[in-house]
Amino acid sequence: MTRVIAVNRTGGPEVLSIENWDIGEPGPGQVKLRQTAVGLNFIDTYQRSGLYPLPLPFVGGNEATGVVIAIGEGVTEVKVGDRVCYQGTPGAYADERLAPAAKLVPIPEGIDDQTAAAVLLKGLTAFYLLFKTWPVQAGETIIWHAAAGGTGLIATQWAKALGATVIGTAGSPEKVALAKAHGCDHVIDYKSEDFAARVKDITGGRGVDVVYDGVGKATFEASLDCLRPRGLMVSFGNASGPVSVPDLGILARKGSLYVTRPTGLHYFAERSALLEGADALFAAIKSGAIKVEIGRTFALGDVADAHRALEGRETTGSVVLLP
To answer: CA-CA distances (angstroms) from residue 22 to 94, 95, 143?
Structure first.
């Protein structure tokens, strides 16, 4: 039996239930992991609440690091004793788990387990957004909403290293200062300032090339006003609620704009793409281009408190759960 944090019904953090499950032994293509650190992400809250439905019951969490303690038939990607990490594979809130070997990424020397758990999902999100969805070029200007969050701190540093001018938004003076210390050229406190007006001032009326928005409903329409003609709005999250665009004509009126709603599920469907992104991410960390900020840690058994803190915008940087 192993301790897991299960979701038997959708709802608030109170539905997260500490239970003991018999997870069995790995089948073909699977491994058993003893987990060492678990990353907390907004997608965990979306699945728990039912916004992103999963079959019930399920074990929460999508990202962790661990040590391989058993392998199933046909596994060639890893061996017993390997330190590995993964993302995008539900079931992370557990002391031990079974996982598909094809989704595991070896942790390189020089990267500790908590850093890997804090960065893989968020860092791969930053990778596909900055390198694939809109390949950011030196001299371009971008906006990153929630720049002091876990993904934001990684992405803004990376974008700055690519030569972009980076405008961040954040929701308090403390978060503004943190974002500025992590690569943003300009940071706007969206709670006290009209960020669309400030962006037009910063860009001399031109607007930005691309907006990266994981906040959702609260920032979407004003973000369209920040774009230059034929700029791209990248909506990749729903922290403030889901976005709806009932009138596509708004895109024409605001400058023949483009909008996309990408997800890592499609960018990393193939193992080769997963390893490409992970290699680029870990290389950026080792080079110093990205410094990983772990804002808080919680015991795995206190995961409900961690969800409340994340949803209450009380966290900065990455949050790690410790089994």
So the answer is: 11, 12, 46
List alpha helices for 93-194, DSSP H.
113-127, 150-161, 173-181
pLDDT of 237 higher than 90? no
Note the pLDDT of residue 244.
80
CA angle 160, 161, 165 (to 5 degrees): 25
Identical fold for domains 2-120+268-322 and 138-261, yes or no, is: no
Domain boundaries, the chain: 2-120+268-322, 138-261
Q: Taking the mean position of all CA atoms in its chain, how far away is CA 242?
A: 16
Residue 73's nearest CA partner among 103, 31, 24, 35 is 31
Beta bridge partners of 94: 4
Span 134-164, pLDDT tens digits: 999 999 999 999 999 989 999 999 999 999 9
- From CA 181, how far away is CA 166, in angstroms rounded? 12
Between CA 302 and CA 174 the distance in angstroms is 25
CATH class of the structural domain 2-120+268-322: alpha beta
CATH number corresponding to 138-261: 3.40.50.720
What are the backbone angles phi and psi of residue 101, rounded to the nearest 5°? -60, -35
Query: How much is the pTM?
Result: 0.92
